[in-house]
Structures are given as structure tokens and as C-alpha cells.
Design goal:
By secondary structure, this protein is an alpha+beta fold. Helices cover 20% and strands 24% of the residues. The protein has 13 helices and 37 strands. Strands 20, 21, 22, 23, 24, 33, 34, 35, 36 and 37 form a ten-stranded mixed β-sheet that branches. The protein has a five-stranded parallel β-sheet with strand order 28-29-30-31-32. The longest helix is centred in the C-terminal third of the chain and has 17 residues. It is elongated, with a radius of gyration of 55 Å. The two termini are 79 Å apart.
Length: 706
């Protein structure tokens, strides 16, 4: 309420108490606490009367108040008797004959202090007003514009009654409300147009509105709204076709000696989306389609839905040691050459354990199991050939699983690979030179320059002088394993003589803290292969070694070795380093059908190879025979004696380890389960002998999952 009203009410209360009261501040939210006296109704003339009304909320003391016409003139005011009070909402009728009926006049009420509290001009002057009443409608409200029904001493009622219109188009049935004389009491109109496809509503200005619901809104069973009308819904579209399968699938199996692989083929010229046809152990077609080849008519068909690589080639591994890893031995510190760490007591004890199991001056011989276990570790990572330096040499049991490429049972016509894990004597070195000259040796794989000091570096020069014919081993047939100590001058010699190198970065970093200068070797045109060395500090398989090499290159040399270059290091470069590029290392007609299939992005096959783990290897064939892969492709493997189920890092795989021609002597009939359990039991039995203070059981797993 306004400050003026508060002061007016305060003045009334004060005059009633006859004691001056100060005005008080109020806020708009406060409630009126006093009386408010107004002229509510009158009639003029000698019998005139004035009706006072208390529009406030407190009883008013009207002692000494006056009703009057014009101020300071006209008829004398009439003073109310002492003790006169007026309750809220009540009326007081005062007789007063001073109101003119035909000339301008006023009606006023003045409090006991002489302050006018209300007044009304004589708007009725000039009319014949005798006997008429004029007043507010409703009580305390606005003055009616003309005469009202005379209700002196009672409620004035309203000027009109009955039906009315409150101006709200959303209501109907309004009427004048007694007491307030306002138009109200109407009820909301019904805007329901019985159309389920409109949003019924009402606007107070325009009334009912019925905007259409969005097309497609359900309006009943099998019905939808279209342009505001409920119509039958069209039949649902057929479900989309299922996505094409992403895993490898064996589409046909009429025979196993003809196999047709479909997928992204990594050829020497680059990736090709096409087919590889295998007849027996040989690739006979590499093309977008091999349909014109007679053998494709009855071939087993594999939709690989993946990437077909040449089988990976491990050019350097100590395969009989692959039952161990770095949990069995790690160097106590970094060393500078290979003659140092071999003196560690735990390393010597591990070598003793391996030699004991290998039948070297011991009552047991698990040589075949050791070799085949290492081959299977290679096979599950897509490796189809391993230079493993197994001893004794050329055992029949080496002729299973991955090719033991440096042994006569390698599945090839002959063994033309010689190896040396120790520096050769003059007679041994001369023998290699004689074999090279006689074309009996195509590759001589030798450990030299392993380390980072001058002792290791001098081994290249020593290799040149150890032979009776100087530098006869500086030949294209020689492949240097490690070469970590070789500098610019030595690498220049290696390049000039056409020698190859085998790079084993993880093992090098494990033992020496650094590795060979491969970017320099590549810049000089040296053929470089990549190999894990062994699972003791080296990688457990070639896929892991590829990732380590890529990470080292990125961190150390700024990514100068591309994914394709790394892929070449484990395929065609490796085959060249072993003198076998005419038989292995690439997918070409006439070469052996040693193949690996992996999943991954076929548009980035080399990146997919670097990302692959054994669980991602979908199929491995050695000489055209499926030996490992996804469980769905197991029927492609040899039917007798059958393949085994493997769990590789929670992925179901098959492995064909046992062969039909197995005997107690060659042990080719052993299953993987037999090999694994035999080796694990042998390690535990060896530990129980307490021949050293160290234990080496349990057996290192085929794959240590990440």
C-alpha cells in the first residue's frame, strides 16, 4: 500500500486517541492496520442523509468527527457524538440536510483534528435529485455514475447484475460477483476437438487453438499423425541387413591340399584385395581372382576378412631357452660386451637347467619337447620359420610346426644355413668359407660385435683375419647377428661386402642399454632383418619385437623406420639374410605357402601388423598346411591325429601340434598338452634336485598376455 494511506490511517487512529502519533515507514508488503472512513452513500435535501463506511481493518473512534458540505461555507457541519465508533466493514448513517439538490455542492467527512478524510463533488447538480440516492458500488468501491437503489444503512450492492463478459476468451458463464461487483465466476471452456493429432489449448485473447502434432506421432494402435490427421501407419521398413561378418570363415572344404584364401594380400608390389591359391605346399596364384585356375574349382575356400602376410621369419633365436623368460634371469646391471653377463651365477644356473633338460650329460632328454615348445611360441605369432640353433642338430622332431630353418628337417630340399653362436676357430671359419665357395652354404649366421665397447667392435676385424684366406667371410652369405658395437667404418665394410645384419633391439637394450645404429645401416644399403634373440630379455615372439622396434625407433630416431620397412625385416629381408629369398619371405607364385593372416584395418596393413598380438592371428599355414588359427577354421587343419583347442589370451584358437607319423623315437605324435606338461614337470623335478640355489619352475607360458 502507499505511504499516503498509512498516514491517513495513522491520523484517524491518532485523532481517536486524542494523542499525536508519529508517522511510521511501511513497505509494500505490509498489511493495513488501521481504519479508513469514506462517504459511502448519500441522499440530498432537507431529509438528506450521509452514510459513512469503514473500509479499513480496525474499528474507528469517530468521536468529534464531522460530516459537512463545502469547506468553510454552506451548511454547518454535523459533529458526531463522543463514543461513536465504526467497526470494519460497517456503515454509520448520519442525517444531514445541507446537501443541495440543484446546485454545486460537496459531501465531506472530517476527522476530529479537522483533517478531511473523504469528499465527493456534487456531480448530480442540476438534476432533480430529491429522493434519489448516490453512492459507491460496492461498499467502499468507486462511485456509481448515476443514482443507485437507496440502501442507506445497508449494503449498496452492485450497479449491475447477471451475466457479464470478463474479456477472457477461455471462460464462459461469467456473472457480476456480489460484494466485489466484478465480472467473474466463469468456467473454463472445453477446447477438446476430439482430434488425437492436435494439441488442444486455449489463448485468453483468441480462445481455443488446435495446432497439429508433429507428423509421425502415434495416435492409436498402428496409427500416426500426418498433417494433423490420424491415419493408418505405413508398415515398418524391413530390418537392415546384418553387418557382414568380420571374422575369418571357412566357406568350403572339399579338400585340404588346395586352399584359396581371400583377403587383403601384402604382395611385393603392395596391398592387393584378392585371392591366393595354394596347391600342395606351393603358391600357384596371387591375383584379384584365381577363378581361372583349375585348382580353385575344388579348393577349400577361406574368407579371411583380414590381411594375408608372408609367414614371419625369425632369423635369430636360441629356441631351446624359450622355456624361460626374464622372470628366470635378468642381468644385475648393464654390460658392455657379451663376455661379461654370462658370468652371473643365476645365468649359469639357468644354462645348467637347460642343458640338463636337453640331455647334455644328464639322465633325461627333453630336447624334442624344448624345440617344439619354442616353435609353437613362434607359430602362434605368425612365425613360420625359425633359425633356432637347436642342438644336437638335425633331429627328426624338428620337422614339425614352424620350420627349423637351420636344420635339415626344415621342409625344404636341403639345409644351406650355417650358424655360430660362439666366435669360430680358424678351422671352423675355413670350413664355412669352403662351403660358401662350393655353394653348400647360402647363409652363415654368426654372433659378432655384441656389446658397445671396443672389445665387441674388434670382432668384425677379427672375423676378417681368423680365416686362412683373409676376409673370405666378408661375403654376401654372412649375416651378422647383433652388431651393436659397429660404427660408421665397420658398417661401411659390411655394406661394401654385401653382408646382412640381424637386429634384436629388446635384447640389446636389456643387456647393454642401447642397440645397433640401424638408421645408419639402412642408409648404407645394408639388408637388415629383425629377430627377438630369445625370450629371456628379448621378446616372447616376433610380433612383440616388431612393436618394441617401432617404439624404440619413434623415441630414439624420430620415426625414420616405417611400418613397411619393419614388415620387410621379418619377411623378405629375413629370407635374404638366410639365403632363402627364392623360396620364402614374400607372397609370389612358386614360393612356399608359408602364410599368416591377421585381423586389422586392411587399408593400413603394415600398421595392423605392428598392432597385432597372437590373439589377432587368424590363420597360419606352413607349406600349405593349416597349423594354427581361429577356432572356426580348425576343420582346415589335418584331420588326423587332430588339432587341439587353445586359449590364447581369452581367444579360442586351434593348434595342430601332433602329427600322424609320430613314434616314440621322433616324438612327432606329441600333443601340445603333452609337451607342456612334460616340460613343466621336468622343470619341477629339476628344481627338486637342488642342484642350484635357484628354482625355474613353472614353465614360461606360450604367450604372456598383456
Amino acid at each position: 500500500m502507499s505511504r499516503r494511506h498509512i498516514l491517513t490511517v495513522t491520523a484517524i487512529v491518532a485523532s481517536a486517541a486524542c494523542v499525536p502519533q508519529p508517522a511510521t515507514e511501511e513497505t509494500e508488503s505490509e498489511v493495513v492496520t488501521g481504519a479508513q472512513i469514506v462517504v459511502n452513500e448519500l441522499t440530498a435535501g432537507n431529509a438528506g442523509k450521509i452514510e459513512l463506511y469503514n473500509a479499513g481493518i480496525a474499528t474507528a473512534d469517530l468521536s468529534g468527527w464531522q460530516v459537512d458540505d463545502i469547506a468553510n461555507g454552506g451548511t454547518a457541519p454535523k459533529t458526531l457524538a463522543a463514543g461513536t465508533t465504526l467497526a470494519p466493514g460497517a456503515v454509520l448513517l448520519v442525517g444531514y440536510s445541507g446537501i443541495n439538490t440543484a446546485s454545486a455542492d460537496q459531501v465531506r467527512v472530517v476527522d476530529s483534528a479537522g483533517v478531511q478524510q473523504d469528499a465527493q463533488s456534487n456531480f448530480w447538480a442540476g438534476s432533480s435529485t430529491l429522493g434519489l440516492c448516490f453512492g459507491r458500488q460496492p461498499d467502499g468501491g468507486s462511485w456509481a455514475s448515476g443514482p443507485i437503489a437507496c440502501t442507506l444503512g445497508a449494503s449498496n450492492g452492485c450497479a449491475t447484475s447477471g451475466a457479464c463478459d470478463d474479456g477472457d476468451a477461455c471462460t464462459s458463464g461469467e456473472a457480476i460477483q456480489p460484494g466485489t461487483c466484478t465480472c467473474g465466476g466463469g468456467s473454463a471452456i472445453d477446447c477438446d476437438d476430439a482430434n488425437p493429432c492436435t494439441a488442444d489449448g486455449c489463448d485468453s485473447a483468441i480462445g481455443c487453438a488446435h495446432p497439429a502434432l508433429p507428423d509421425g506421432t502415434s495416435c492409436g494402435s498402428d496409427s500416426i499423425c500426418t498433417a494433423g490427421v490420424c491415419v493408418a501407419a505405413p508398415p515398418p521398413p524391413p530390418p537392415p541387413p546384418p553387418p557382414p561378418p568380420s571374422d575369418a570363415e571357412l566357406l568350403a572344404l572339399p579338400r585340404r591340399d588346395h586352399v584359396l584364401l581371400r583377403g587383403m594380400i601384402v604382395t611385393p608390389a603392395g596391398p592387393l584385395d584378392g585371392e591366393v591359391l595354394i596347391e600342395g605346399d606351393t603358391i600357384t596364384c596371387v591375383a584379384a581372382s584365381c577363378a581361372l585356375m583349375q585348382a580353385s574349382a575344388d579348393a577349400a575356400i577361406v574368407a579371411t576378412r583380414g590381411i594375408i602376410f608372408p609367414g614371419l621369419i625369425d632369423t635369430h633365436n636360441h629356441i631351446l631357452f624359450d622355456i624361460f623368460d626374464e622372470t628366470d634371469w635378468s642381468p644385475a646391471r648393464l654390460y658392455t660386451n657379451h663376455n661379461q653377463w654370462t658370468a652371473e651365477a643365476r645365468y649359469k644356473a639357468m644354462v645348467d637347467a637347460k642343458q640338463y633338460l636337453n640331455g647334455e650329460s644328464s639322465p633325461v632328454n627333453f630336447n624334442c619337447e624344448l624345440d617344439k615348445y619354442g616353435e609353437l611360441k613362434a607359430l602362434v605369432a605368425g612365425t613360420t620359420a625359425v633359425q633356432g640353433s637347436a642342438n644336437p642338430a638335425d633331429k627328426a622332431c624338428y620337422g614339425s610346426l614352424a620350420r627349423t630353418i637351420d636344420q635339415s628337417p626344415n621342409g625344404l630340399a636341403a639345409d644351406h644355413v650355417q650358424t655360430a653362436t660362439l666366435f669360430p676357430s680358424t678351422s671352423a671359419a675355413d670350413g664355412v668359407c669352403s662351403n660358401i665357395a662350393a655353394d653348400r652354404t647360402d647363409a652363415y649366421v654368426i654372433h659378432i660385435a655384441e656389446g658397445i665397447d671396443q672389445t665387441a667392435r674388434n670382432e668384425l676385424a677379427k672375423l676378417g683375419s681368423i680365416t686362412t684366406t683373409p676376409q673370405c667371410l666378408y661375403a654376401p652369405e654372412t649375416t651378422i647377428v647383433h652388431g651393436t658395437a659397429l660404427g660408421d667404418a665397420e658398417l661401411t665394410t659390411v655394406a661394401a661386402r654385401g653382408m646382412s645384419m640381424v637386429w634384436s633391439p629388446r635384447s640389446n637394450v636389456f643387456l647393454y642399454g642401447q642397440t645397433a645404429n640401424i638408421p645408419l645401416a639402412l642408409a648404407k644399403g645394408i639388408n637388415v632383418a629383425l629377430a627377438p634373440d630369445w625370450s629371456i630379455g628379448g621378446s616372447q615372439n616376433l610380433l612383440d619385437e616388431l612393436r618394441f622396434a617401432d617404439q624404440l625407433d619413434n623415441a630414439t630416431w624420430g620415426d625414420v623406420i616405417t611400418p613397411r620397412m619393419l614388415a620387410d625385416m621379418v619377411t623378405i629381408n629375413a629370407a635374404r639374410a638366410l639365403g632363402l629369398a627364392d623360396k620364402l619371405g614374400s607372397i609370389e607364385v612358386g614360393k612356399k605357402a608359408d602364410l599368416m593372416v591377421i585381423g586389422g584395418d586392411p587399408n593400413a596393413p603394415y600398421d595392423a601388423l605392428l598392432a597385432a598380438r597372437p590373439r589377432d592371428v587368424r590363420l597360419v599355414l606352413v607349406g600349405g598346411v593349416a597349423l594354427y588359427g581361429d577356432a572356426a577354421l580348425a576343420p582346415l587343419g589335418p584331420p588326423a591325429p587332430g588339432c587341439e583347442d587353445l586359449d590364447i589370451c581369452s581367444t579360442r584358437k586351434f593348434a595342430c601340434v601332433a602329427q600322424a607319423n609320430g613314434t616314440a623315437t621322433n616324438k612327432l605324435g606329441q600333443t601340445f598338452a603333452t609337451i607342456r606338461d612334460t616340460l613343466d614337470g621336468a622343470l619341477r623335478a629339476y628344481d627338486a634336485l637342488d642342484l642350484s640355489p635357484y628354482d625355474f619352475a613353472p614353465l614360461t607360458p606360450v604367450v604372456r598376455c598383456e
